Every structure is written in C-alpha cells, then in structure tokens.
Amino acid sequence: MPDYTVIDSTKVLDGHYLKKLFWRAEPLKNEVSACKWLWLTAVEIVFGKEILEHMVINASVASVGNHPHVKDHGKIMHLSRHIPAGIVTNLFRKHIVEVLYYKFYRQYGILSPEESPYPKEGKRIIDCSQNRFCVDKTYLEQFISFRRAYDFSWLIINILTDAIIYFVSSDLTLAMLSALVVEAFRRFLKA
Asked: Where does the chain cross the membrane (predicted)?
C-alpha cells in the first residue's frame, strides 16, 4: 500500500513577529520616538503574555455595542479594562495603556476601537477615556506567535545576562545564579 504525501499550499500569515515587536511601522515613526518605542517594547515583553491571555478571555465573550462588526470582535471595553489586575501591572498601568494603544491597536491591529481616538487640540495627549476597544477575533491565531516572541526575548535577556556575568566574573556558579535571578524576577513581575 503506497503512502500518500499530504500538502497544503494555502498562503499563511507572515511570521515576522520579532520584527513587529521591535520595529515601528512607518506611520508610528512620526508619533512615537525610538526611545519610547524601546520602553514600550520592554513593557510589552514583561506583560505581553498576560495581556494576550486576558484578550483571549475577552474575545470569548459576545460583543455588544456600536462596533460595526460585532460578531467578529470580543467584549468592548476601555483600554484600562484590557489590563489584567495585579500588583505589578497596577504599578505599570499607565505604560501598559500606551502599549495597548500604540502596539496592539496601531501596530498589530489586534484591538479595534468603536470610534478612533484623536489627540487633544494643542496638547500631546490622546485621551482614550471615552473610547472603547475590542479584540478582533481574526487575530487570535497569531497570539501563539507573539507569545513565542516574548519567550524568545526573555531567553535572549537571560543568555545575555549570564554571558555578561560570566565574562566579568569568570565564575560559572555566579552566572548560573544570575539565570535563576532573571527567572525569579520574570515570575515576580506576574504577581
């Protein structure tokens, strides 16, 4: 009996998630400085997995509201409601709101607003207090790739920290201890 080869030549989504994570799209280059983007990326790496998990839960709830594509979107909420509660997340809430706006709404398109927020006239503030956002369910399949990008980023941070500690101290035990400290720090941030 012959073995059949199974193929699927359907075009898949591009997998440039590290590029999406670290590099700004052209329209955002005029709105967000490179330093602020780097900071937002660091905040996203720290809290991204929890945000994605929270979005999956919110996407499972039927949407009710003024969004034009209600059945393709999750629960409509203010940006601050898309942030899971926690001691450390509450300390970084202001920065996580910016991550949600610039990265999850403007860069990735995962969040979709009922109405587009605009900067306040004469001020450098985009007040999203009157705007509600929902998760676009068509992006849920990409969440695993984003989680992998976050995990890979933590791996690089851990390896770099270990290598620096080893080259500075020439002590393998200290380098291994630094790996433990980085992992403990990562887990502490989820508190």
From this structure: 163-185
